[in-house]
Amino acid sequence: MFTNGTGLPDDWERWRDQVDLGAYDERWARMAAAGQNPHGEVDLVASYAPGSVLDGGCGTGRVAVELARRGVAVVGVDNDPDMIAAARTKAPSLTWHAVGLAELDLGDRFDVVVLAGNVVPYVAAPQRAAAIAACARHLAPGGRLIAGFGLRTGWPALADYDGWCAAAGLRSEDRWSTWDRAPYAAGDYAVSVHRRP
C-alpha cells in the first residue's frame, strides 16, 4: 500500500473521496432507529470497565462520544483533520488530537486503547509496527489494546498484527469475529485483544 504525500495510505484516500461525513454519521443513527445496536465496539470496551480510553483513529468521534456518555474519560486521535474537526463539532468538551498513530506521544496512559473499524489497515504499511508500538506505550500496566479490522488481500494478516503486538510487549488475550464476541473461525473480520503485562 502506498501513500500519496499526506501520510495517509491510498486505500484511505480512496475511501474518503467517496464519503460524505454527514452521511457517514447518519448511518449510525439509521441503525439505532431500526432497532440495531450502533455501539458494539463501545459495549465490548466498556465490558472491561476502563476508567480511561484512547480512541485511536477516532474518525468523527462516534465511539469516543458514546464512551464519554457512559462516564469513561476518553481522548480521540485521528490523522484526518476533517474527521477531527467533525468530532470537535460534535463534542467540543472532549479532547481531540489530529495526529497519526505512529507519531502518537500524548504523555498519558490509558486502561484501553481502542482501534475500531479498519484503523490498522488504514495506517500506511511502513508505519504499522510503529503505530502499534505507540499504542502500546500509551497503555497503563494491565491495559488492553482492542482492535477490529477486515482481513483481505493487501491488508495486514492477523499473524502480522500479532507480531507487531508481541514486539511492543503485548500478550494476546482474546480474539473474536465480531464486537459482540462471536467466536473467531478464520473469517474476514477479527477483533483482537492484547494486554500489557
Give the SSE order as H and E letters. HHHEHEHEEHHEHEE
* Largest sheet, spatial ordering of strands: 3-2-1-4-5-7-6
Query: What is the CATH superfamily classification?
Result: Vaccinia Virus protein VP39
* Amino- and carboxy-terminal Cα gap: 32 Å
CATH topology: Rossmann fold
DSSP E strands, number: 7
Helix- and strand-based class?
A: alpha/beta
Which runs of at least 5 residues are low in confidence (pLDDT < 50)? 1-6
Rg over C-alpha atoms, rounded to the nearest angstrom = 16 Å
Overall body shape: globular
Task: Describe the protein's architecture and organization.
This protein has 197 residues and is of the alpha/beta class. It has one domain: Vaccinia Virus protein VP39 (Rossmann fold), CATH 3.40.50.150. It is globular and about 40 Å long. A seven-stranded mixed β-sheet has the order 3-2-1-4-5-7-6. The protein is built from eight helices and seven strands; from the N terminus they run αααβαβαββααβαββ. The longest helix is centred in the first third of the chain and has 13 residues, at 21-33. It has helices at residues 10-17, 21-33, 40-46, 62-69, 81-90, 119-122, 128-137, 158-167; strands spanning 52-56, 73-78, 95-98, 110-115, 139-150, 171-176, 189-195. Helix content is 36%, strand content 23%.
